[in-house]
Amino acid sequence: MRASSASTPPPGRRAGQSKNAADAPAGRVRGPALAGGSSSDEYDWASDPAGNSTFRSIATNLHAQVFTTVNYGTGTPAEAAAWVRSANQTNHCGFQYWEIGNECYGTWETDTHAVPHDPYTYATNAAAYIQQMKAAFPAVPIKVGIVVVPGEAAMSTTRIISRLIPAPAPRTTAGRP
Question: Which of 11, 99, 100, 153 would bridge with 145, disulfide CB 3.0–4.6 Å?
């Protein structure tokens, strides 16, 4: 777990003493991030209940909106969706911001896919991650980030994703359109 830190606390307060983000001057508190950097492409959230509990506690006590990186390197869309469901349905966190993998284009990152570090492979897999993560708990509007490397030109991850993800089906309530 890594959390972005505040610069200097207000006079009369020690670092970390603020009750929540609203107590701090603008720009002093940033949202915490769980599973960041290269370790996120190997991180199994389900096998780290203590780390997840601590992270949720910090984030919710700060009333922070977090940015979480799901495991693309060795994980699956189903595991990412389960994490969204655990954070938002089971634990009522309301976490909206998620990223699929960390610097997946880099050979320094773990990537066990058939064609590792490939933009088309990433985009194809990211489409499945996005669909499953958004479907995991529709009550929270999930915003999923993807990794785009400048200069990918025709293989731009964004362009590929937009072609792979079909328009969402109309929402129904109790079987009615």
Answer: 99
Helix extents (H) in the chain: 49-61, 77-85, 119-136, 157-164
Report whether pLDDT(91) > 70.
yes
In the chain, helix, strand, coil percent, each to 5?
A: 40, 10, 50
- pTM greater than 0.70: no
Angle at 153 between CA 130 and CA 132, to 5 degrees: 5
**Sign of the torsion angle spanned by Cα atoms 85, 86, 87, 91:** positive
In the chain, the domains with their CATH numbers are 28-164 (3.20.20.80)
Beta sheet of 67-70, edge-to-edge order: 2-3, 32-34, 67-70, 97-100, 143-145
Residue 169, phi then psi, degrees to nearest 5: -70, 150
